[in-house]
């Protein structure tokens, strides 16, 4: 089985054209790979570029240099240079992502927000809603909220909708950007269980967890992102 | 899913005398894809849309469209009659002002039915049943079917225009500021409706808008235009979250946060 994701020599900076074109280097020389059935954790203080790495792997940030090789439908694709259409196909079939914040759409119910990724992958809408119900109840989201659009939910409620949406599919790679940040202890434990189940199913996970207990519980390996600080490249 | 695009656009330019409408625009559009074209007034986005929909002929460049038989046809070499047929059947055009896309003095039902008759439907009962079905899909009450759109609110008119365009099962829909001029709450409802219809029907669409939130909600891909040229293009969330071109950065940083 090929390595699901290999990152080599990736660099990223932001050029702020509105501020006289100053260049803000974020990260450089990023190289690592993740394994199926393992949860790899990106460690390091805020601002070290952890989220930027996840966003590049999801095609949400452009990549300045380097390669991101992902195993997609039996072939290998360099996400750093892939066309938008290819990135969309990779998101549909191969890489799932739980972002920090839920981007809500007016008038779409929480249940359908969660079921949507499955429907996009061609699953029957009712079957997808069934799985969405199971996940939302596992995450203790009160049933009376399921039919409502999540825009007015609390932070923790929105995050659980977001987690359910990310975990509902069977993507072989799953990126997690602080999925437990605004959850109580009970729900944190549910997320730890969900992650364990994904590992058992052979999913390669890559996440950011500021919560020490969660990190201890899920991490197989920690990559210190400060090693990729721009300017440290020489070694 | 097919591996061939629905529309191939290559080096399309339109000049109005010495003034640039749009300059050297190229892209491919695949079935089921929604492409947003953003930019401020005068950026050339509407000129581009009008060229693509053959309402306007470009000064140079080509656009070829994959017909239902799988053959690509060069749009600007078709006869006027062929282009009109395409416009009536396989394409839709949603105007910013519904009055431009509707017949204001015939009933709502007839506005929808007319497009069906244009593709050869003749059975009155069937046409009326389809019209009723489409009005309900765009959330217009059945008892309004015999009313003229003159008696409708702006939001209802826009929903009627959408029904009129989609009733023939087009594969490509052009939209020019489809939510422009509507109240915010009406806009949200229309966006949600459009988003659902586009997904359910697997439509390809080219949406011109100056509203980045509309682009974010509706499109997967985005082109940013300035002075007739494409200054940046890519995945919609990539362009909005990591804008690279100076002009895109200016646009994104000008969004008002609520």
Q: Provide the CATH top-level class of the largest domain in chain B.
A: Alpha Beta
Detail the poorly predicted runs of chain A.
none
Provide the β-strand percentage band of chain B.
Answer: 15-25%
Largest sheet of chain B: 6 strands, mixed
- Name the CATH architecture of the largest domain in chain B: 3-Layer(aba) Sandwich
End-to-end separation of chain A: 31 Å
Q: Provide the domain count of chain B.
A: 2
Please bin the fraction of helical residues of chain B. 25-40%
Strand content of chain A: 25-35%
If you compute it from the alpha carbons, what radius of gyration of chain B comes out, rounded to the nearest whole angstrom?
18 Å
Total number of β-strand segments of chain A?
A: 9
Can you give the mean pLDDT of chain A? 93
CATH superfamily of the largest domain in chain B: P-loop containing nucleotide triphosphate hydrolases
Helix/strand-derived class of chain B?
A: alpha/beta
List low-confidence stretches of chain B.
none
Number of helical runs of chain A? Answer: 7
Helix content of chain A: 25-40%
Largest interface: A-B, 18 and 22 residues
Sheet with most strands: strand arrangement of chain B: 6-7-8-3-9-10
- The structural class of chain A is alpha/beta
Family (chain B): Belongs to the ABC transporter superfamily.
Protein name (chain B): Phosphonate C-P lyase system protein PhnK
Pfam family, one (chain B): ABC_tran
Keywords (chain B): ATP-binding, Lyase, Nucleotide-binding
Describe this structure in words.
The complex is a heterodimer of chains A (235) and B (258). Chain A is built from seven helices and nine strands. Chain A is of the alpha/beta class and 235 residues long. In chain A, the strands form two sheets. Chain A has a five-stranded parallel beta sheet with strand order 6-7-8-3-9, sandwiched between helices. A four-stranded antiparallel beta sheet of chain A has the order 2-1-4-5, with helices on one face. With 258 residues, chain B is an alpha/beta fold. Chain B folds into two domains: 1-72 and 170-258, P-loop containing nucleotide triphosphate hydrolases (Rossmann fold, 3-Layer(aba) Sandwich); 91-169, no CATH class. In chain B, strands 6-7-8-3-9-10 form a six-stranded mixed beta sheet, with helices on both faces. In chain B, strands 2-1-4-5 form a four-stranded antiparallel beta sheet, with helices on one face. The radius of gyration of chain B is 18 Å and the shape is globular. The interface between A and B is medium-sized, with 18 and 22 residues.
């Amino acid at each position: 089985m090929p390595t699901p994701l290999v990152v080599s020599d990736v660099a990223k900076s932001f050029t702020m054209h509105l501020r006289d074109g100053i260049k803000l280097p974020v990260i450089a020389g990023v190289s690592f790979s993740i394994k199926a059935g393992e949860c790899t954790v990106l460690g390091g203080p805020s601002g070290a570029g952890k989220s930027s790495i996840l966003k590049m792997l999801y095609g949400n940030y452009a990549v300045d240099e380097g390669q991101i090789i992902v195993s997609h439908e039996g072939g290998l694709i360099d996400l750093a240079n892939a066309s938008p259409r290819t990135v969309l196909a990779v998101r549909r079939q191969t890489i799932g992502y739980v972002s920090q914040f839920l981007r809500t759409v007016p008038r779409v119910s929480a249940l359908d927000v969660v079921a949507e990724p499955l429907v996009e992958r061609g699953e029957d809408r009712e079957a997808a809603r069934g799985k969405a119900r199971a996940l939302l109840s596992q995450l203790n989201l009160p049933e009376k909220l399921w039919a409502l659009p999540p825009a007015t939910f609390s932070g923790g409620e929105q995050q659980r909708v977001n987690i359910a949406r990310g975990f509902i599919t069977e993507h072989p790679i799953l990126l997690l950007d602080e999925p437990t940040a605004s959850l109580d202890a009970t729900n944190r434990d549910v997320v730890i269980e969900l992650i364990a189940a994904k590992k058992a199913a052979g999913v390669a996970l890559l996440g950011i967890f500021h919560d020490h207990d969660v990190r201890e519980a899920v991490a197989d390996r920690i990559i210190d992102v400060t090693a990729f600080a721009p300017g440290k490249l020489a070694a | 899913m097919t591996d061939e695009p629905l529309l191939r656009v290559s080096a399309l330019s339109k000049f109005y005398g010495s003034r640039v409408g749009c300059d050297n625009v190229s892209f491919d559009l695949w079935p089921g894809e929604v492409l947003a074209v953003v930019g401020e007034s005068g950026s050339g986005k509407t000129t581009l849309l009008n060229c693509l929909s053959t309402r306007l002929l470009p000064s140079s460049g080509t656009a070829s469209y994959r017909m239902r038989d799988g053959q690509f046809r060069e749009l600007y070499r078709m006869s006027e009659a062929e282009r009109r047929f395409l416009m009536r059947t396989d394409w839709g055009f949603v105007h910013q002002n519904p009055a431009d896309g509707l017949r204001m003095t015939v009933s709502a039902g007839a506005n929808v039915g007319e497009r069906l008759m244009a593709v050869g439907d003749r059975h009155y009962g069937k046409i009326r049943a389809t019209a009723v079905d489409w009005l309900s899909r765009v959330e217009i009450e059945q008892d309004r079917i015999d009313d003229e759109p003159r008696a409708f609110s702006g939001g209802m008119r826009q929903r009627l225009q959408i029904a009129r365009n989609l009733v023939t099962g087009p594969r490509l829909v052009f939209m020019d500021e489809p939510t422009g001029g509507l109240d915010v709450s009406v806009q949200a409802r229309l966006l949600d409706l459009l988003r659902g219809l586009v997904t359910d029907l697997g439509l390809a669409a080219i949406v011109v808008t100056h509203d980045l939130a509309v682009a974010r909600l509706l499109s997967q891909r985005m082109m940013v235009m300035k002075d007739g040229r494409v200054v940046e293009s890519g995945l919609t969330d990539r362009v909005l979250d990591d804008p690279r071109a100076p002009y895109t950065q200016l646009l994104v940083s000008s969004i008002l946060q609520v």
